[in-house]
Design brief:
Blueprint (H helix, E strand, L loop, with lengths): L39 H46 L3 H15 L3 H13 L2 H12 L6 H18 L3 H13 L4 E9 L5 E7 L3 H6 L2 E2 L6 H8 L3 E3 L2 H4 L14 E8 L2 E10 L8 H20 L17 H9 L5 E8 L5 E9 L11 H4 L4 H4 L9 H11 L3 E12 L2 E14 L2 E8 L2 H15 L2 E7 L5 E3 L1 H7 L22 H13 L4 E8 L5 E12 L5 E10 L1 H38 L12 E8 L8 E9 L5 E11 L1 H18 L5 H14 L6 E9 L4 E7 L5 E4 L2 E4 L18 E5 L5 E5 L11 H12 L6 H10 L9 E8 L1
Antiparallel strand pairs: 1-2, 1-6, 2-3, 4-5, 5-6, 7-8, 7-11, 9-10, 10-11, 12-13, 12-16, 14-15, 15-16, 17-26, 18-19, 19-20, 20-21, 21-24, 22-23, 22-25, 25-26
Protein name: SpoIIE family protein phosphatase
Keywords: Hydrolase
InterPro entries: ANTAR, Bact_Sigma-Reg, GAF, PAS, PAS-assoc_C, PAS-like_dom_sf, PAS_fold_3, PPM-type-like_dom_sf
């Protein structure tokens, strides 16, 4: 819209009563300032008037657009009345005005209602949804119809997609609270291009003018899913899109815009605030606007050239038919088949190329022209082939897949095969190509994978012509480029380690001259300095005359196996050395123990007292323990009796046993009682040894009084055998040796009678893995009650009937009063 002009044609400045100043000439009416320009107050006045004038002119433009769009609706409604009533345009205009007055509606609202009743399309359904769901106030349904029909007329009359976006935002989306809208178009490579936008800044639109394939955006989510996606908050969804920086927490809705099963673009609507769940009426409005966008995108010329142009004419089926006939693989040319509502329900097989072979044996003519689901109903089954064809047709993004499982019905029997699939869209048609994997190709593929995994390469050498055929794996094993010639068998020694020359010579002698299958391993020196261990196996191929014609065989990289064998050999050698060292150590330990603790002790010169000792070492030499005993006459003519058990096995236990036994002998010379001796021995174990702990029972027998004073340190108490009865002595207080720095041990005195026998023993005599200690001691007492011919016989009887199964040392001391 142009502003008023002067008589001379010069545009007016918008300020009444003033002529426009000439360019470059200062305004003579403006008061001068110190800087030579107009006064600030005058500037503000001028700017305010100019802004008001601009806003007024914009309002007039908007009003003119609205009036023109409203006139388009009224004219369309008049056309409906002309067709329905059979009257002229003038009479239809009068009839429209009369109906509007009677209904209490404006001519625009009534025109929208007449168009809805006549069209019964998605726009009409969206307007009727408000009435059915009672979402809006009375009269709102009419305004919704006006908005949608106005947006439709503006979009259909627009010259570009930018005008369509502005019309949708102004007439249909701003009343819903939306602040911006973007219209994307899809390319054959599944890219997205911004064709129209409103409410977004120019810089933002420039940054988002193109979205490459594979970039996940809000619009691509709707495109790949082929469904409407609602985002209550775009930032919460974590998906990028246009305008996210300006409205980070705003809601979004993205709708695929398509017709006839083909998606032409995506409509994206933006709200400034988080979006609450919308009623179904609003959802229908959005879907109706998306369908309107699809029709306009299909009709409007593209703003930018496409990466892959569509075929020039029609659906492109004739061109694809000619193209498919030049392929060596089976191919079908498919075109969409729509129902009465314009929805895609199937694909028509428009052409079958020359290399097509029907799995059911039908001729090409019976398949050509049929519907895909009727000819091949299994495509809608578990393989989802029909869904992939439908997706390619909708989005334009090609699909490629290897070893896809295809199922076809032959006499109602499903037959399955593996094939490589290619699906692409060209214009309005889809080209389906497949290559069935036959048995020989599959076996060849398996063989190649097996040779790669086993690091095996086959070869064949023609002895007559000298031609050599190598499998590709061999070049990698030998470290040679594929442009280099293969290595002949006769030249193999030149590529091997010198020490393996004789081995290779014998191998060649067997294969080439003795003509027998042979195999050998050798070290190969590659050009890159790497040494590989290879095994070669070859067999001669004889001709009809019995002469050598060719040699076939294979090389295998056994480097990993070789180094594993080397490592196992080294480990085995270390284990043997360790076992020998352990045996030697156990032998020395046993010798040390036997030197200090002989299995039988010589008779003890103690008047009125018979003493017998038995020591049974562990059955396993690796379990040399720390059991010890001692029976010695002290200078005071009293007899020291003790047994003990050092924790652990081996040299440490044997060494600890020697320390405690010798220390106790030295301490006993002082004449102290057994409790004091164990207290001193505890200090020795705690302070003067390397963390040695032990149990012990110590007794001092006085021959004159026939009394036995004794104490225990965590050890089992002695056993008293009197007559036909045997009982263990009381369990006195006393911690094991070495547990604490200081400890006191309780003493007890026992007066013996002639014929009494006292037994001291270590736990190796009674301990069992599956029996409690109390039950084991009860079994010992039962054996001790058995009659015997003497003390020596009694000890032998105890060892023979011992039920211990822990393979531990055993010490037993027996004293009998005569």
């Amino acid at each position: 819209m142009s502003g008023p002009r002067h008589q001379d044609g010069a545009p007016s400045t918008g300020l009444p009563g003033r002529a426009a100043p000439s360019p470059g000439t200062p305004d003579a009416t403006a008061p001068p300032t110190a800087g030579g320009g107009p006064a600030p107050a005058v500037d503000e006045l001028v700017d305010g008037r100019l802004a008001a004038t601009v806003e007024r002119l914009r309002g007039e433009v908007r009003a003119a657009h609205a009036a023109s769009e409203g006139r388009a609706l009224v004219e369309l409604a008049k056309g409906v009345l002309v067709e329905r009533l059979g009257c002229g345009p003038a009479q239809a205009a009068r009839h429209l005005a009369e109906l509007a007055d009677r209904a209490g509606l404006s001519r625009l609202e009534l025109a929208a209602d007449i168009i809805n009743q006549a069209a019964r399309d998605r726009v009409a359904e969206a307007a009727d949804a408000f009435v059915r769901t009672n979402v809006a106030e009375p009269g709102t349904a009419a305004s919704v119809a006006v908005r949608l029909r106005t947006a439709e007329s503006a979009a259909l009359g627009a010259g570009d997609t930018q005008a369509v976006a502005e019309s949708l935002l102004t007439h249909a989306l701003e009343p819903l609270g939306a602040v911006a809208v973007a219209i994307w178009t899809t390319g054959p490579d599944a890219s997205l291009s911004l064709r129209g936008h409103a409410g977004f800044g120019a810089d933002e639109a420039a940054r988002w003018h193109y979205v490459p394939p594979g970039v996940t955006t809000a619009a691509r989510q709707a495109l790949t899913g082929r469904r409407t996606v609602w985002y209550p908050s775009l930032s919460a969804a974590g998906i990028p899109s246009i305008g996210r920086a300006r409205h980070p927490d705003g809601g979004r809705v993205v709708v695929p815009a398509g017709t006839g099963g083909r998606i032409h673009g995506v409509l994206e609507i933006c709200w400034a605030r988080p979006l609450d769940p919308q009623p179904q009426a609003v959802e229908r409005q959005v879907e109706a606007l998306a369908e309107l966008c699809a029709h306009t995108l299909e009709a409007l010329p593209g703003d930018a050239p496409r990466a892959v142009p569509d075929l020039a004419a029609g659906d492109g089926a004739p061109e694809l038919a000619a193209l498919s006939d030049g392929l060596y693989d089976p191919a079908l040319v498919l075109t969409p088949h729509l129902d009465e509502a314009g929805r895609l329900v199937d694909f028509r097989i428009r052409h079958v190329n020359a290399h097509f072979q029907d799995p059911a044996g039908r001729p090409r003519g019976s398949v050509d022209g049929a519907l895909l689901l009727e000819a091949y109903p299994a495509t809608a089954g578990g393989g989802d082939l029909f869904d992939r064809i439908e997706r390619v047709h909708a989005t334009g993004e090609p699909f490629r897949a290897r070893r896809t499982r295809l199922t076809s019905l032959v006499d109602q029997v499903p037959l399955t095969s593996l094939a490589d699939i290619s699906i692409s869209r060209h214009g309005g048609s889809v080209l389906l190509i497949w290559r069935v994997e036959d048995e020989s190709a599959r076996l060849a593929s398996l063989l190649q994978h097996a040779q790669r995994l086993g690091r095996v390469g086959a070869f064949e050498e023609d002895v007559v012509t000298g031609d050599i055929t190598w499998h590709g794996q061999l070049f990698e094993l030998f470290g040679r480029r594929t442009t280099e010639p293969p290595v002949a068998l006769r030249d193999l020694a030149a590529h091997a380690h010198p020490d393996d020359a004789d081995t290779i010579r014998r191998f060649l002698q067997t294969v080439l001259y003795q003509r027998r299958v042979s195999s050998t391993a050798f070290r190969m020196l590659r050009h890159d300095g790497v040494t590989r261990h290879l095994r070669v196996t070859a067999e001669p191929a004889l001709g009809t005359d019995g002469g050598l014609q060719a040699v076939r065989g294979a090389y295998q990289d056994i480097s990993a196996q070789h180094w594993t064998e080397v490592a196992l050999t080294a480990t085995r050698d270390r284990l043997v050395a360790t076992e020998e060292a352990a045996e030697e150590r156990n032998r020395l330990t046993l010798q040390l123990q036997h030197a200090i603790m002989p299995p039988a002790k010589p008779p003890l010169d103690a008047p009125g007292l018979d003493v017998a000792v038995r020591y049974r070492p562990a059955e396993s030499e690796s379990l040399v323990g720390g059991d010890w005993y001692d029976a010695v006459v002290l200078p005071s003519k009293k007899v020291l009796l003790c047994v003990g058990d050092v924790a652990g096995h081996g040299v440490e236990a044997a060494t600890g046993m020697v320390v405690l036994r010798n220390a106790l002998r030295g301490l006993a010379v002082t004449g102290a009682g057994p409790g004091q001796l164990l207290s001193w021995l505890n200090s020795v174990a705690h302070h003067l040894t390397a963390h040695v702990t032990a149990t012990a029972v110590c007794g001092v027998y006085d021959p004159e009084r026939r009394t036995l004073r004794w104490a225990r340190a965590g050890h089992l108490p002695p056993v008293l055998v009197r007559g036909d009865d045997a009982a263990d002595l009381p369990l006195l207080r006393g911690l094991l040796l070495g547990a604490l720095a200081e400890a006191e041990y309780e003493e007890s005195e026992l007066r013996l009678e002639p014929g009494d026998t006292v037994l001291m023993y270590t736990d190796g005599l009674v301990e069992r893995r599956d029996t409690a200690v109390h039950d084991s001691v009860a079994q010992l007492l039962a054996v001790a009650r058995l009659p015997s011919d003497g003390l020596e016989r009694r000890l032998d009887q105890l060892l023979a009937r011992s039920k211990s199964d822990t393979d531990d040392d055993t010490c037993v001391i027996g004293v009998q009063v005569s």
